[in-house]
Amino acid sequence: MDILLVGSSFSAAPMLFDLKRRGTHVTVVGKHEDDPCHAYADNSIYIDYSDPAELLEVCRTRDFMGIVPSCNDYAYVAAAKVAATLGYPGFDTLDIVEILHEKDRFRQFCASIGVPAPRIYGEVTVEAKSVKVHIPGSALVKPVDSFSGRGVERVHDSDYLPAAIDRALAQSRNKRAVVEEFVDGDLHSHTAFIAGSEIVWHEFVDEFCETYPYQVDRSAYPSALTVSLRTEVHESLTSIVRALGLVDGLLHTQFIASKDSFWIIECMRRCPGDLYSQHFQLAAGQDYTHEYVSPFLGLAPKAPVSQKTLRRVERQVISTEGPQAFFGVSFNTGARPATFIPLKKSGEKLAPAPFDKAGILFLEGRDGEDPACPFAANISRTVQH
């Protein structure tokens, strides 16, 4: 069985390894020849997979049994468009894909079913940049289709909107941006697997943006969220699943929560990047990647046999505020078990966040520690240059 993996970066590697363990022949598509997945794949195709027409042509000339999108919106949307033409399993209709992956349509959908989300003050296109948008307070300007916080900017006054809109449009492939309400609180994620139109497994993770304000670079599992907020968020996500009639697979959501309120920021059906799946693998032995891949092979995801969290896991993405020549990284982890995945070699250029990263560190709790209790101190790390 030949499967196409759409994406060749390090974040796609767990999917490739899972496909290989299933005994499949894996072809990887991605234009960067030095990406790690090309080294592990059975076959490689070097094209820009974000172009749906080019990806469709590849699939029409090969006998793939399925396609698996990797960890960015371009991979998922392009794969969904190909699946709509060729009938590959694991994808919603294109209308649902657009609702979930275009910020303006998603906000409108949430409002229509009573799910709390930030209000939209206005929408802007390249052709209509002169549209006047009134903001009653702080607002966020966002490309409708970007990921990793690219092109997102907070403004406090309407006078600063034009420049922020220009920067957002520059990061949008569709050349559309939204101006939306800024909501204050802490960032979290709700990640869930759907089977038979019901959520069969879900968890919460606390997230932090410490280097770049709109890109997650630290996260912790299990979450410190209250039971009441967890229940309310889960109920809202269940409403979204049922209202859209989502097919089997992953639904990953980011939301902001204050003491007694929350706002859904975005939902996606692709796997989150930066090895997010390892939170559950290291903490409880949950094979998150396996369940993500299954629906694209026509199989329903399953809940783990045991949902007990055995230990706390924190993830730290190593990035910098400005460009530099990377040399190395030093850590102080307090003698806890740690795993570091390097993404740069000494001497390579390291671009500023959110466009680059030097590596990812996973820090595990010691045996016998309460997994619900945060570590006494954050990970101490230094980027050397």
Walk me through this protein's architecture.
This protein is α+β, with helices and mostly antiparallel strands and 385 residues long. It has three domains: 87 residues, Rossmann fold; 63 residues, Dna Ligase, domain 1 (2-Layer Sandwich); 199 residues, D-amino Acid Aminotransferase, Chain A, domain 1 (2-Layer Sandwich), CATH 3.30.470.20. The chain is built from ten helices and 20 strands. Strands 13-12-9-10-11-14-19-17 form an eight-stranded antiparallel sheet, with helices on both faces. Strands 3-2-1-4 form a four-stranded parallel sheet, sandwiched between helices. Strands 5-8-6-7 form a four-stranded antiparallel sheet. Helix 4 packs antiparallel against helix 5.
Keywords:
385 residues; alpha+beta; Rossmann fold; Dna Ligase, domain 1; D-amino Acid Aminotransferase, Chain A, domain 1; 3 domains; four-stranded parallel β-sheet; globular
- Enumerate the spans where pLDDT stays under 50 for 5 or more consecutive residues: none
CATH topology of the largest domain: the name is: D-amino Acid Aminotransferase, Chain A, domain 1
The number of distinct β-strands equals: 20
The separation of the N and C termini measures 46 Å
CATH class of the largest domain: Alpha Beta
Query: Treating each run of at least 4 consecutive H or I residues as one helix, how many helices?
Result: 10
Radius of gyration, Cα only, in angstroms? 20 Å
Q: Which structural class fits the helix and strand makeup? A: alpha+beta
Q: Describe the largest sheet.
A: 8 strands, antiparallel
Strand order of the largest sheet: 13-12-9-10-11-14-19-17
Mean pLDDT across residues: 91
Level of helix content? 25-40%
The rough form would be described as globular
The appropriate CATH architecture of the largest domain is: 2-Layer Sandwich
Residue share in β-strands: 25-35%
Q: Kindly give the count of domains.
A: 3
SSE arrangement, N to C: EHEHEHEHHHEEEHEEEEHEEHHEEEEEEE
